[in-house]
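Hi,

I'm pasting everything inline rather than attaching a file, because the server keeps stripping attachments. The sequence lines come first, and each chain or strand is labelled.
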Amino acid sequence: MSVELDVFVVNTTIMDEEVYQLWLDGYTVNDAVKVRMEGGVLEGCEASAEVLHSDTMDQYRTFQMCERLLHSPVKLANQLLFQIPPHRQVMLIERYYAFDSVFVREVLGKKLSKGTKKDLDDVSAKTGVTLKSCRRQFDNFKRVFKVVEELKGPLVENIRQHFLLSDKLARDYAAIVFFANNRFETGKKKLHYLTFQDFAFCAGQLISNWTVGALDNMVEDMDVDLEKEFLQDLKELKILITDRDLLDQHKSLVCTALRGKTKAFNEMEANFKNLSRGLVNIAAKLTNTKEVRDFFIDLVEKFIEPCRSDKWTAGDMRLYLTHYTNSAHVLDTFKHQVVWDRYMGVIKSCILKMYHD
Amino acid sequence: MPGKLKAKIVAGRHLPVMDRASDLTDAFVEVKFGNTTFKTDVFPKSLNPQWNSEWFKFEVDDEDLQDEPLQITVLDHDTYSANDAIGKVYIDIDPLLSCEAATVISGWLPIYDTIHGIRGEINVLVKVDLFNDLNRFRQSSCGVKFFCTTSIPRCYRVALVHGFVEELVVNEDPEYQWIDRIRTPRASNEARQRLISLMSGELQRKIGLKVLEMGGNAVVGYLQCFDLEGESGLVVRAIGTACTLDKLSPGTAPNTTTHTNTHTLPNTAPTSNACNSPSKDSKESPLAHGCRSTHNSPVHSTCSSQRLSHSQNFSVSVPTLVFTGMGSGGSVGKEAGPLKTLLRQHTQSALEQREFPIFTLTCFPPGFLVHVGGVVSTRSVKLLDRIHNPDEPETRDAWWEEIRQEIKSHAKALGCHAVVGYSESTSICEEVCILSASGTAAMLNPRFMREGCLDTGGSDHRLSRQPHPGMVGSERGEGEVSSTWLGFEDASPPSCGFVHIPYDEFNMPFPAQLTYCYHCRRQKVPDVLFTTIDLPAEAEVTGKGCLIQARLCRTKKKAQGEVNATSISNLLPFMEYELHTQLMNKLKLRSMNALFGLRIQISVGENMLLGLASATGVYLSALPAPGGIQIAGKTPSDLSYDQHISTMQKRIDDTIAKNKELYNIHPPECIEEVVGSPIPDRQRSSRLFRSTSESSDELSELDLSHGKKDAFVLEIDDTDAVEDIQSLLTDAPIPAGFYSCNTEVMPGIHNWTSGLQMFTSVRVYRLSNANLTNQGLNKIFTDLCENLLKSLYFKLRSMIPCCLCHLNFTVAVPEEELIQVAVTAVAMSFDKETQQAADKALTRGSGENEEQLQFSMEMCGESTISNNQPTAKPSGVPESAMVHSSRVSSSERCSPLPEGRSRSLRSTRSLPCGAPVTVVKMTPLSFLPGTRIVKYLGIINMFFIRETTSLREEGGVSGFLHSFIAEVFAMVRAHVAALGGNALVSYSMKECVFMENPNKNQAQCLINVSGDAVIFIRESDQEAIPPLLTSRQTSSTGADGTT
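And the predicted assembly:
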């Protein structure tokens, strides 16, 4: 005797969150049943593995039917097929668009193309995230990217409205879209120590300070791209390292301010010119799209690594960057205060975020 | 009288992509009614077209308005080739024809295609202008209200119950017409859907006409069924109960209903007699109806196979059985004692004028039901023949006529003049058809049936009767039976009256143990009572009830034609007998003494018959306590055998003890001593024999004064009995926190929360072993049902504590070696804390809602403290305590719901944008706990076909059916919402025919659903905000996140 057909349909669709997570994680029905058994779901119920299997199948089917709707979450709210209580809809969407940080770290900054998708089995093997789950996450990135790409206005808000995500998740997606669009390099070995949240923070900083939408929300443009004019202006900052007087002046101002306040003072003094050259060079090169991609690797190589080898503490770093930024204002011949602040504000917070083991 | 139908097509959304090149659709809409078609403009290149059409006006006869559905077809315009259909919407405009129902249909309706399922939605507006002439509703049956609900609808008061209405229409099934060979599956499905829609409309109109003829204005308990007879045609038939309903003025509290009823209740016999006598005289005498039943022998009566006029027409009447408590007996008892005769004359005369004193109601206004005799049922095996002339469906009519006559005669045999809780069903396999009908024989209060009585003299009686309640109380307090209480000589108190036997105790139609009623001590009651109705609100119950099922499988040889029919009809009595035995045993095992809502379904397949009996067992306080079950061995020689028996005995005793605890059945002991009962045999016993030949002996043996064995005896003399006992004990216990019943509500549970979940589950099993024995099949079938129940409990565990109400099982044998089981029910959660308090206080039958509870309390109040004799009240708790406790429970209802449930009910967060979809609740019950139904919007009766030629791609059979059922739910909800409703009550899925051909990657399914669309409001504002209100609020306050 075998069960040929087995369905259970309810009027108000309420999904088991645990099973939903297993489905999202790409477990097969049989594996999901095992996990649920081990989780002790049967305790206190007069139920067998068969019952559990049937229940899991039912739920998996429901999820599969819902998946189409989840691809455009706005539809979920006004579709008629499933009567899902609103707070449940929120949960379904939020979970569906959630991603594994190990996975996202692998594809961050990569082109969301078919080629990348083909390599997902490698990513799956490397991260331990099931291929199915990798594909869902990748497709989510791509879907959000495609929708937002065409839209005008603030990126985070666009994502929030079109995908009904929470603010946090929308910001993460904005970061992913931003990275994918600018193709920032994140995969180099030297960058491995950085988490997705580090990058997401930096992306947030870049989006809110360096894009067109950053200054004026009303501007009918996307904030997926960095503002061209600003990048042009950044070239002007070169004077800080090309003009010897200016460089020396800057150094002495910073050193005066720092003296006696940190143990790493000697190293700071010794490295000042190198470090300053590093940061200003990064700024000057950003007009070149290829160099933009290397933004993070440059930050690490030109600034973070030297500091780390000199054993600066996080406090040292904050102190140094604060004075480095502020001292430039006192330089009489330096006329690019606004651009400098806009640049250094982001650089400072990015470096502070990225300066850890 | 003509009317004007107006339709406006507003917009579409979520349309499918019809043009691959552009990924868009050029949609337009055809609106068709009768032979008139209108078209909208093409809205190019959009998946969300805004047509905003003019009003399309159809000027039509109201006959057409009733019969025809409005047909809306959405198409994709194609310049070069034929336009592609996207899908269709059929709109039944019947609800718009009654002034009390819906006034407009407006909203998003799913666009449905029989091959692709739901493909987007369309927003429409439909109105009807009926020309206002004085004779408005007299020419056709427009305006007659239809209710699926099998009780008096909540916001109505019943003035008169006219009685049984039935109608049947037949047609050729389009699927079997020659043209079907050349048309596409889609065209064929659509032809079928449209035809059934038309036939349903016609049927409803014809029934409406009958109601008008009878002077009624509504049909309650409307039950419409389809018989897909294959080659021989398509039958749509319906039965119902014609009533005259008065709408309660809006705004009146629900207990106004009860008030009115309470006042009219003491309406009494003398005056009613006067009203009634003329009509009575003109009619034939009660006895003239006689009993036409020909098969009166218990089991082995000769199968009378009659040939009807057609040569092909073959019919086998199945001999009916005589069972304890389940009188389907054909033997006519002698006329009862003078007292009863008088009673019968009173009531009969009112019913006499009707051909069939049959009622589809299962729940009655207080005082309506006087006595209940037992279950009456009839089955008949027929051979189907092509319906030659669709306009004269006489053969089918005759079949049912015959069956109803038989039911009527069975009821007579039980000393009853009416049948309530009546239903009809068929099971078809190839050319064989089993027609079944069952109901509960009953005595009814004629007051509700007497024309003019209420209107003319009603107020006078009321006035004159005012002092009566008090008087009644005092009389009864002194121990006198009030003769005027209900207008009958042998009137009985409401809480036990209905269990008093209607038949004559010296001429009982079946073997039964009679005792004096444990409640009033005046009248005789049987030891067990089987009924098809819901537990009357006034019934007093000890403890809780539970679902009891008997399951049976019988193999049969494959055969053709008459041979087949004969072999089936030979098997049927044995199956009925077995099912009855199982029910009885299981009832005893649970220490209960009555079954309500009994449904026995027998399904026929090519090589087997399936029998499934479901009922809700309860312990009626007025009936005697059931004895235990004793096992007796035939050959008590072997020591190990004895041991075996004693272990089994112990297991049974343990189970009984456990069940008593579980269902909280603690009847007072030795109540007889207190009263000094005249029953000589204190410990009841009954005896059930394995062999049928013995049972005839039993008939003669029956005499209540003779001593019997201590308990219900099961004799293990063969393997069958061992099997029986095994199956008795293998029924898995219900997990803690769950209760189940197949009636409207669970006796003993009152404080429902608003948490409810309606579900449908379908399973199909393939029997792998072709050569199964009956026992093997039984085991498999039992396991199927048990596993299904277990699955349900598991899936609904988050709702604990909860009760699965109205568990409705349907079984079918779609193909050889396939068994299909479908279940529809509603899980309703209740409050544990207050429940316990209520338990302690008292258990009173069916506290299904506040009204009923209040009503019974009022009854008690009006009849003063009379009921309060400790002897008569098993629980011995004073009335006041009960009143108090129930008030507590109602006030606590306002308190926040327990965590687990509130999460699923309350929406704490709403979606920031998107048009809100009205939340539509669905339930098979006639009410929603904690709410008040303020308006009935009309009947929903929908028939869908879904077919696929890419079964694997759609997730196999389960994926296919899962999405189809979800789509059906969605379409029902959308139509309810379009009528302006927020719930569908008395929902039922009457047909779910599933066919597959995995080799061809094909499957087809037909589903028929029905129910009453209603608007409900919460009883209390403090109560948790229902999802509906929340979503509406969201819409009105504007989406917070959109800015």
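Residues 485 and 492 of chain B are 7 Å apart (CA to CA).

If the labels don't parse on your end, tell me and I'll reformat.
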